[in-house]
Each structure stands twice: as structure tokens, then as C-alpha cells.
Amino acid sequence: MESFGSYSSQWLAFPDDLTTNTDYAGNYIMFTAMKVSGGVDTRTLKFSRAEGHPTSVCLPIPQGLSFGYQNNWDQNEVGGGVAAMATKGAGVLNTIANVTAGGQSLTDMVKSAGTAAGSALKGAGAGLLSAAGDVGGTAGKLNAAGGGVVNEMKGFAATKPGIDNLLSAAQFSLGVRALKQTMTSYSGPGFRSFSWSFSMKPLSMTESIQAKAITQFFKTRSMPAQGDMQFTRIYNLPDVFRIQFYSGFSESPWIDKIGHCACTDVSIAYGGDRFTTFAGGHAPLQIDLNLSFKEMELLNRQAVQNEGNTGVWPEATYTKAAKPMQSPTAVPEQG
């Protein structure tokens, strides 16, 4: 890595002694401007170092550094026909699925329910007939055999579009409410967001220049270039950022890794709580920089498991050539 301390160099850092100051213990975060191209999904995007100088900025690792691993689980309603066909089983739901697939009426549905009930009753055999004198017992067996099918048919019909709205309004008059089944459905990992704050307090004119250059770096790199068009606006995409955490001149193996990120917000505040400047040059005594990012690559199990085993991340885990994920170590049973 090149030495820090010059705006004309490839690297820009604040403060000047970032890598040697005992207050930071040689720990810092590096932002590298990248160009993104190609691909239509997170696994096929291509990244290359952006043109111009500087291309990287190093700042002290912010306080409260944290990482989230989001997954989206949504609540979905499941229509009766879909639920029935999804069971792949026999019985009541399979009967409903077969009737529904044929587009039959509610009357046909009830007839099919009766057939299913009749089959169940026939299977009951002499045991059911011998209990004919027991009205309550017979009714119970009839309901178990066929009534459940009929009730399921009623609920299935009541949840059809149009009818469900009518029955929703009439639920208090009827005393019942039919609803579709619901389930929790997995819809993939989420794009992570990060927000960090940096308070730069220069102690010299050199550090004031460095601080201003860093704010200029993020302002410029995060904005698009606009083409010279008369009736429309055409933008070249802004730079994105590779974000890495370093200890000395090596990437830290102890801190979670982050994929390439788009910068969604750059906020700058000058002068601290009370605006104050240096005498002579009138450079602010304090510049507060707030940065927000959204990760461009979706995490997967391979990426998370391999992030500590590769020097290049996430490319070595997101691409199709990524090494296979290791199997979890078996835990011996306690006996």
C-alpha cells in the first residue's frame, strides 16, 4: 500500500497518522471507488477500480460497528385449491382440488362431498349399521365420515372472490367468518443498509485540506455525470464502493465483510456545535461526515460461510466458480 498523507496520491486518509496512532490501534475502514458493469443480477455484476485519483479513502472505524443478516419471511394467504393441490394427499382436500379443477358448481361440490362421505360410510361397515339405534353415535360417525367434507366445501366456496366480500359484511348476521388459510413464506435475503458517522477534527492546515478532500471524494464519487441532452436527462452511473476493514496493512479477519455498496446519502456538517474556524485560513475546526450505503449483492450461505476463508470477497463466493460450501461438522450425540 502507498503511503498516506497526500491528496495527489492514490490513497487519502484522516488523520495523517491513522495507521500508527495508538488511539486507533492501526484499525481503519477503507472505501474504494469502483465502477459497476455487466450482469442483470447480483451474481453476474462486474466491478473494477474507478478512474481518477484518489480512488480510496481511509477513516477510523466508526463507533457502534454492527452487521445485520436479514431474511424476508412474508405472510401469504393460500387459496383452498392451491392448498389442496399442495398437500399431494388423498382425502377431503384432494376431493376439493379435483372438483375445483373441473370448474364444478357448489352443488357438484356437495355431491362429490356426499360421495366421499359415502365411501367413508361404506368403509365403516356393519359396525356403523349396528349402531343405528344410537342417534347421537351415528350422527357423530356421519360427521366424522362426511360432514367435514361438506363444511370444508362451504368454507372453500365462501372464500371465493366476490363472495368473501359479501360474507365479510354479513359475518355478524351469520355468526361465522370464512378465511383463506395463511402461511409464512420465504422470499429471499434482503439487501443490507449501513450508516456511519465520522467526526474529523483537524489539528493542522494539512489535515484540514485532507478532511475537505475526503468530503469532496464522497460527494463527487456518489453523484452521476449528466450527458449533454436537450429534452431528456441521461446519466452515467455513479461510482460504487468496496468497503473493507483493516488492521495495519492487512484486512482484518475478525470483522464481518461487506459486499460492494451504493452510496445513498452523503451529509456534511461544518464547525461542530458552535461554528469555529482556524485563525488565518478560516478552515472549520470540525467536519462531521455521515454516509449511508446499500449493499448491492445479496448474501447467501456460501458467502457467509466462506467470508473468512478467502482474501477476495465477495467475488470468490458470489460467482458460479465459488468453492463449494463445507458440510457442517457433525455434533456427537450425548449419551
Notes on the protein architecture:
- The structure is a single chain.
- With 335 residues, this protein is of the alpha+beta class.
- It folds into two domains: 11-70 and 190-299, no CATH class; 76-185, no CATH class.
- The protein contains ten helices and 13 strands.
- Strands 1, 2, 3, 4, 10 and 11 form a six-stranded mixed sheet that branches. A three-stranded antiparallel sheet has the order 7-13-12, with helices on one face. A two-stranded antiparallel ribbon has the order 5-6.
- The longest helix has 24 residues, at 135-158.
- It starts with 10 loop residues before the first strand and ends in a 17-residue tail after the last helix.
- Residues 1-8, 120-136 and 323-335 have low confidence and may be disordered.
Task: Characterize this entry briefly.
The chain has helices spanning 80-87, 92-101, 106-124, 126-129, 135-158, 163-169, 171-174, 205-221, 301-306, 315-318, and strands at 11-13, 27-37, 46-49, 56-60, 71-78, 181-189, 193-200, 225-226, 235-236, 240-247, 250-251, 261-270, 287-295.
- The total of helices stands at 10
Query: What share of the residues lie within helices?
Result: 25-40%
Largest sheet: 6 strands, mixed
Structural class: alpha+beta
Terminal residue distance: 54 Å
Average pLDDT: 73
Shape descriptor: elongated
Element-by-element helix/strand order: EEEEEHHHHHHHEEHEEEEEEHH
How much strand content do the residues show? 15-25%
